[in-house]
Write a structure and sequence with these properties.
The chain is α/β, with parallel strands linked by helices and 490 residues long. The chain has 15 helices and 22 strands. The strands form 4 sheets. It has a 9-stranded mixed sheet, sandwiched between helices. Strands 16-15-17-18-14-19-20-21-22 form a 9-stranded mixed sheet, sandwiched between helices. The termini are far apart.
Length: 490
């Protein structure tokens, strides 16, 4: 009896890497050698760019490519346009052959095109075949559905025996069903749609046989690198996630009063929310946490959206944290990203890449609202942040996040499901007393540990944040309606 077993597993299938950033993650490792794949989409969605990008990547790996066009665009014009992308390499052109199938189709139909492809694949030792404009060509030649099916079956047989991989680019709107879809090993749809005022490119995996792919939609862009895919964060990070157990170690802020309230500090690999109004001290508190780690040679990262790196460092230096020296000694990194015209998946990729590459142990994300504003699909945000915080925990990172709240009364904590994503919550508030505003701090939650829940005043001094004694004269502080006792302030 033949067949695979645990002792004799099936041989591993060879994959072709796409050379497209993020695409192999979506595909589960690349396209299988000898497979027939369809790339569909409307005009201008990036099909031709993607196909050429894969050709240059394959040629760079030593493969040979044949690119057959069924379109009216000349090869010289197409190659001229490719010069604008960094993947284009004149030195690889001897491994990529560009041919036109228009005349062959016009004179002999699909059968003649199949003969041409078979001859080119065998003669040139082709390992990657691109057929660009397949549907346009079949319509122009008046090919019937039966003729298309025969052609595709013949092509699939050729690919199987030669080991060549084929990518057929077809002009087709998303969701359209065509005969070739059933015969293909995989179907990828490219789209370009308007979401409010922005144009959003997406890649959608309709099917991919034999591969543990990330199905569904993924944001993509076309820039100087060519086509770039940003896999959906919650789908990518959920693939391989293993969170180690808690160590029990505490990380301090180096603010004596606060560390005492926390009974020693935050648990290692935990996630903490700093909630407060503008100017309440969230950024300074986060910078205290980073500086405390850097002094112990724990590499730390500030990732923010509101302040430039120079302003952040100056703010820390102004209260005696010595951020300039800590940054110059390479223990603190400061990254700023625009809080607009960005993509949440790209931001998460950049963040996690930096964390891994620099072995970051402490992270402060200043202004979660900046990340939220970069999401075009708000219904994804809980899943994205859950995946991100879990990944950071798995990487041994202790994370502090700052959230914006109203100055007085009302919404003092982020609504569910945000609060469920963090183990610890610190609330920073203003209290009006005798025509003056006082900054207040309270620990709302510290999972897995007792803590001092006393509401305390804090000051921002030349040496940083100073926690005062309990501020009991302000009543109903959390309601935003403070009152003054007869005894006044203690």
């Amino acid at each position: 009896m033949s067949g695979a077993s645990e002792e004799n597993p099936p041989p591993a299938r060879i994959r072709l890497t796409s050379g497209v950033s993020g695409l192999d993650d979506v595909l589960g490792g690349g396209l299988f050698a000898g497979g027939l794949y369809l790339l569909s989409g409307g005009p201008g969605t990036g099909k031709t760019v993607l196909a050429n990008q894969m050709c240059f990547a394959h040629a760079r790996d030593g493969g040979r490519c044949v690119f057959i066009t069924m379109l009216s665009e000349s090869h010289s014009r197409m190659i001229l346009n490719l010069h604008t992308f960094s993947f284009f390499d004149e030195g690889l052109m001897d491994r990529i052959t560009y041919l036109s199938g228009v005349r062959v189709m016009r004179e002999g139909g699909l059968a003649a095109l199949a003969d041409m492809i078979e001859d080119e694949v065998r003669r040139r030792g082709t390992s990657l075949l691109i057929l660009d404009g397949f549907r346009i060509g079949t319509r122009a030649a008046g090919a019937t559905e039966l003729e298309q099916t025969v052609f595709l079956n013949r092509l699939a047989t050729l690919l199987e025996f030669s080991g060549c991989t084929a990518l057929l680019c077809t002009l087709s709107p998303p969701g359209n069903v065509a005969p070739e879809h059933a015969l293909a090993d995989g179907l990828l749809e490219l789209s370009n749609r308007r979401v409010e005022y922005r144009s959003v490119r997406e890649l959608y995996v309709v099917k991919l046989r034999g591969s543990n792919c990330l199905d569904g939609s993924h944001i993509m862009e076309i820039d100087e690198r060519g086509l770039v895919v940003h896999p959906r964060t919650e789908s990518k990070l959920a693939r391989d996630l293993s969170i180690p157990g808690a160590t029990g170690e505490r990380l301090r802020f180096d603010i004596p009063g606060l560390d005492a309230m926390l009974h020693g500090g935050l648990f290692e690999t935990s996630t903490t929310a700093l909630i407060g109004a503008t100017g309440a001290g969230k950024t300074l508190l986060g910078l205290h946490f980073l500086a405390a780690g850097a002094r112990q040679q724990e590499r730390s990262l500030y990732f923010g959206f509101n302040e430039s790196p120079a302003r952040v460092v100056a703010q820390g230096d102004g209260v005696g944290l010595g951020l300039t020296a800590l940054c110059e000694s390479d223990w603190i990194d400061v990254i700023w990203r625009r809080p607009f015209e960005n993509y949440i998946d790209r931001l998460v990729e950049e963040l996690l890449d930096h964390v891994k590459r620099r072995n970051i142990r402490r992270l402060f994300i200043d202004g979660v609202e900046g990340m939220v504003r970069n999401s075009l699909f708000l219904d994804r945000m809980h899943a994205v942040f859950a995946a991100l915080t879990n990944q950071l925990r798995a990487g041994g990172v202790t994370t502090v996040l700052s959230f914006e709240s109203e100055i007085m009364g009302g919404h003092i904590v982020p609504s569910e499901p945000w609060s469920a994503l963090v183990e610890n919550t610190l609330l920073l508030r203003y209290v009006e007393l005798r025509s003056n505003l006082h900054r207040m701090l309270a620990i709302i939650k510290l999972r897995g540990s007792d803590f001092d829940s006393t509401l305390r005043e804090f000051r921002i001094s030349n040496s940083g944040i100073v926690i005062e004694e309990a501020f009991e004269s302000a009543q109903a502080v959390l309601s935003g309606m403070p009152k003054v006792d007869g005894g006044g302030r203690r």
